[in-house]
Specification:
The N and C termini lie far apart (38 Å). This protein is globular. Helices cover 31% and strands 19% of the residues. An eight-stranded mixed beta sheet has the order 1-2-3-4-5-6-7-8, covered by helices on one side. By secondary structure, the protein is an alpha/beta fold.
């Protein structure tokens, strides 16, 4: 059963160029020390509604919302996700899916069944630093690389993004990320924002100068790389 642990009823940010709502699904297989939604990742967040209440909400918002952003946590953990996305689409809404890229088989099914119009994948770091950045010792990057390859050749709109944390990222990491994503259409760098809710309170945001430096490195591989949000 899908756990609906949060609902933002309207957003102009989560689904670019569309008015959307964002639904947050509980559960994640990563433990990123900088996660802003850690209560979703560790399972401590309680559901705020059941699926029928959510679809009733969508029924009432027809004509007001263009789309639904499905975020987490990690939505691809749920075997029920294709049916959930399909029901949203049958109601006439566009679907944006946020994912960490750790579940390429689920991602493949979603792409083959055309269940998402836009997919946003987090690229946490260079392969060598994935374990440290995700909080998972011995992390295997093979599924992440498979997901990147899937998204590189799909019909959906795709964006890749990295949350930049001073303690985890340096110039060489963005050379490595650039090589991983070479040829991608959209890549965003977003600065970590320290908050009391993140697991590691000793992490820091990069400076504006560092962000622009990393952006220029990324542009060597992905010409459309750019900074998103506050710097």
């Amino acid at each position: 059963m899908i756990r609906l642990c949060g609902l933002q009823k309207m957003t102009l940010l989560d689904y670019p160029e569309h008015v959307a709502c964002t639904v947050f699904l509980g559960g994640c297989d990563l433990r990123c020390p900088f996660c802003h939604n850690f209560e979703l990742a560790d399972g401590s967040a309680e559901p705020v509604m059941d699926e029928e209440a959510f679809f009733l909400f969508l029924e009432k918002r027809k004509g007001l919302l263009d789309g639904v952003a499905v975020s987490g946590g990690e939505p691809c953990l749920y075997r029920e996700l294709p049916a959930f996305l399909g029901r949203i689409r049958r109601m006439g809404y566009l679907v944006k899916l946020d994912t960490n890229g750790c579940h390429p088989q689920m991602l493949r099914q979603i792409l083959e069944e055309h269940l998402a119009d836009r997919i946003a994948m987090d690229v946490k770091n260079s392969p060598e630093k994935y374990a440290q950045t995700t909080g998972i010792p011995g992390f295997d990057t093979a599924p992440v690389l498979e997901s990147i390859a899937l998204l590189a050749s799909c019909d959906a709109e795709v964006e890749f993004r990295t949350t930049v944390v001073r303690e985890f990222h340096d110039e060489q990491d963005f050379h490595a990320i650039g090589r991983m994503l070479a040829g991608a259409e959209n890549y965003f760098l977003q600065a970590f924002i320290p908050r009391d809710t993140v697991p590691d309170k000793d992490l820091h945001a990069p400076t504006s100068e560092e962000m622009h430096q990393y952006e220029q490195i990324a542009k060597r591989y992905i010409p459309n790389a750019r900074i998103r949000g506050s710097e």
